[in-house]
Write a structure and sequence with these properties.
The chain is an all-alpha fold and about 325 residues long. The protein is built from 13 helices and no strands. The longest helix is centred in the first third of the chain and has 39 residues.
């Protein structure tokens, strides 16, 4: 490529990176809003019913999206069908437990704890994916877990037992993410998207009829809004990944905690105490450091690969 071509490409790449980051930040706002609406709805509707409606509209979205890209038949033709079904099962159970826990815990508090999931992913990537994790990232994982302990304060007399459910959600979501990373090596993105929606719809449809109740106009409206937030959030996430590599975007996922704190304060009167804020700060800082180290390690691996493939002239 000529030098003038490079000078034109660099601003375009930088512009796309900014677009991807902005798209992700807005997506996290929709995801936080989705959880806030879920918390509102759990006060009057069964969780199983809420989850079924969410997965119905998401499965519809996934089918339409796949039909417009690679085709539905090709999207269903997974090379790792068992693991795709497993990740679908994990995510529907995780979302259900998370939604049920929102009845008993604050939105900001739950997201402060849930922010630890990148640390769990880093720790589990060694046995599940055989990845190498250096001492710096292990140290960051340790500090992040310390921050999680500061948030939940297990020795405190006011310890909320529902925190255990949130920690189970963190573990399940982490395994789901690792399975997603694993199947992405063999399947199309649309395949993972469609199995997410269809498996979730199938599982929730088995449970929801036992808890189904009639809804009023207000509840129906909120159910439609929560479904729309999920679809819009995922569309923005897809667009962000089209513009910007995931390794660069990863730290900006923590904006969901910022939105959760703001929404929790204005709509539910939630205020995180200073101890929880300090713990959340340690968790987020550790996660950002891990993301930075993964970026550096990935960049160095690519550089060494290029050197091996195109050695400099002697």
């Amino acid at each position: 490529m000529k030098s003038e071509d490079l000078s034109q490409a660099a601003p375009e790449d930088a512009d796309n990176t900014v677009k991807g980051i902005v798209a992700l930040i807005v997506a996290t706002l929709f995801f936080a809003g989705q959880d806030a609406i879920t918390k509102h709805l759990t006060g009057s509707l069964p969780v199983a019913q809420i989850i079924l409606v969410r997965f119905f509209f998401f499965a519809l979205f996934a089918l339409i999206y796949a039909s417009r890209t690679i085709g539905i038949r090709k999207a269903f033709a997974s090379k790792m069908r068992g693991q795709q079904i497993l990740r679908g099962l994990l995510i529907v159970v995780e979302i259900s437990l998370f939604a049920w826990s929102l009845k008993f815990m604050g939105l900001a508090e739950m997201h402060a704890i849930f922010a630890s999931f990148p640390l769990v992913i880093t720790a589990l990537s060694v046995p599940m994916l055989g990845e190498q994790v250096g001492w710096r990232r292990w140290m960051a994982v340790g500090i992040g877990f310390l921050g999680t302990l500061i948030i939940i304060q297990p020795g405190n007399g006011n310890f909320n037992a529902y925190v255990i459910l949130v920690l189970i959600c963190v573990l399940m979501f982490s395994i789901y993410n690792l399975l997603t990373r694993k199947v992405s090596r063999h399947d199309h993105f649309e395949t993972s998207l469609i199995y997410f929606g269809v498996v979730g719809l199938f599982i929730s449809a088995l449970v929801a009829p036992f808890y189904w109740q009639s809804v009023n106009t207000s509840q129906a409206t909120w159910l439609l809004i929560i479904s729309a937030t999920s679809i819009i959030g995922h569309l923005l996430l897809i667009k962000a990944l089209q513009f910007t590599p995931a390794v660069i975007l990863q730290p900006f996922n923590y904006f969901v905690l910022v939105w959760a704190i703001i929404i929790g304060y204005f709509f539910y009167g939630e205020i995180l105490d200073i101890t929880s804020l300090v713990g959340a700060g340690l968790v987020v800082a550790s996660g950002i450091y891990i993301a930075r180290r993964e970026y550096v390690v990935t960049r160095e691996a690519k550089r060494q690969l290029r050197r091996a493939m195109y050695p400099p002239d002697a």
